[in-house]
Design goal:
Number of domains: 2
Structural class: alpha+beta
Shape: flat
Strand order of the largest sheet: 1-2
Number of strands: 4
Order of helices and strands: HHHEEHEE
Oligomer: single chain
């Protein structure tokens, strides 16, 4: 990329008018950014986050339960301004709670790493914790009534 910038700049001006200090600064800035960002690492982390999110949702599946006391809710992930990305209701009847908590913990740790390393920004809106409900034998996370 730095070479392309140098060639473009060199092609547009006379050799004697080229500001080599500015070109060196651009090259140095690009090198510094390339050293701090590893696209392979970022790509594999993004792929792992997607995979974990899919595993979490698959593990929860349809949260069937016989009673509300079998229903649970868990906060998943991390938002840039704090708080979870989302809440998900699950049933102890169909979900291995310790395995789910392990997946959620790994997912949340990776999200925190991602936020810290990329400087991700957010809208900083608060997602209120939903309330658990059992409707038709399925555990659901319903929005909190704010009125």
């Amino acid at each position: 990329m730095a070479v392309a910038v140098a060639l473009t700049v060199a092609g547009c001006v006379d050799k004697e008018n080229v500001n080599t200090d500015a070109l060196n600064e651009v090259d140095t800035d690009i090198s510094a950014k390339e050293q701090t960002m590893n696209p392979v690492e970022d790509g594999s982390r993004d792929a792992r986050l997607r995979s974990l999110d899919n595993q979490i949702r698959s593990m929860v599946g349809i949260a069937r339960a016989d009673s509300l006391d079998q229903c649970r809710m868990i906060a998943v992930g991390k938002r840039a301004c704090g708080g979870p990305e989302y809440y998900i209701a699950y049933s102890l009847q169909v979900t291995d709670e310790s395995a789910l908590k392990q997946l959620v913990s790994e997912y949340t740790k990776l999200r925190i790493e991602h936020i810290q390393e990329t400087g991700e920004m957010g809208t900083c809106e608060v997602i209120p914790e939903p309330v658990l409900d059992l409707n038709g034998g399925i555990c659901r996370a319903l929005p909190t009534n704010t009125m």
